[in-house]
């Protein structure tokens, strides 16, 4: 928020103007980034995909109390109501996105569910792309190893003394 003094042509102060900037889109983007970071960190820490992503039915769900309605365990303690949306890339389920409010907090509604579905679609595409990139890297490594093995084999045969 910025408050600026307003002056007339003679230089006399006539009032103030207040400018407010809406940063909700930027804040939402930062929160989405943080959520993906948490998922990634949990997976890299060795937690199972099922534990981190809580995939079961494949259908969006409204949860009124996470600790009592979820099998995800203690990491949802202190959370209240929320939404659970599957992350699907094409026909392949890649996880579940969970949005929750603190215990006793606001209840998430249909507009929140629509936004979370949209974000889940985007996140699923990113995860699927990352998995494909990893598979491509692994394929390239295997091809390089096979080429090196062939080169070594050919070189060893050429160095063998004549019989």
Overview of this structure, please?
- The structure is a single chain.
- The chain is of the alpha+beta class and 163 residues long.
- It has a domain at 24-131: 2-Layer Sandwich (Beta-Lactamase), CATH 3.30.450.
- 49% of the residues lie in helices and 23% in strands.
- It contains four helices and five strands, in the order ββααβαββα.
- It has a three-stranded antiparallel β-sheet. Strands 1-2 form a two-stranded antiparallel ribbon.
- The N and C termini lie far apart (89 Å).
- 16% of the residues are buried.
- The model has no long low-confidence stretch (mean pLDDT 77).
Short description:
The protein is an alpha+beta fold and 163 residues long. The chain has four helices and five strands, in the order E-E-H-H-E-H-E-E-H.
Features:
163 residues, alpha+beta, Beta-Lactamase, 3-stranded antiparallel sheet, two-stranded antiparallel ribbon
Count of separate DSSP helical elements: 4
Output the helix-strand order. EEHHEHEEH
Net shape: flat
CATH class of the domain at 24-131: Alpha Beta
Main β-sheet, spatial strand arrangement: 3-4-5
Radius of gyration: 27 Å
Termini separation comes to 89 Å
Annotation, overall tally of beta strands? 5
The secondary structure category is alpha+beta
Indicate the low-confidence ranges by residue numbers.
none
Mean pLDDT: 77
Strand residue percentage: 15-25%
Helix content: 40-55%
CATH architecture of the domain at 24-131: 2-Layer Sandwich
CATH topology of the domain at 24-131: Beta-Lactamase
Give a quick account of the main beta sheet: strands, pairing sense, barrel closure: 3 strands, antiparallel
């Amino acid at each position: 928020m910025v408050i600026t003094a307003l002056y007339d042509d003679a230089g006399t102060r006539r009032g103030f103007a207040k400018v407010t900037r809406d940063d909700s889109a930027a804040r939402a983007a930062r929160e989405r980034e943080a959520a993906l970071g948490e998922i990634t960190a949990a997976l890299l820490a060795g937690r199972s995909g099922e534990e981190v992503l809580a995939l079961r039915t494949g259908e969006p769900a409204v949860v009124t109390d996470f600790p009592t309605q979820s099998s995800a365990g203690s990491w949802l303690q202190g959370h209240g109501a929320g939404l659970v949306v599957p992350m699907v890339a094409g026909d392949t389920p890649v996880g579940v996105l969970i949005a929750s409010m603190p215990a006793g907090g606001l209840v998430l509604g249909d507009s929140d569910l629509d936004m979370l579905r949209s974000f889940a679609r985007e996140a699923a595409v990113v995860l699927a792309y990352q998995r494909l990139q990893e598979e491509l890297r692994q394929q390239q490594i295997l091809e390089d190893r096979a080429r090196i093995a062939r080169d070594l084999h050919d070189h060893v045969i050429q160095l063998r003394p004549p019989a």
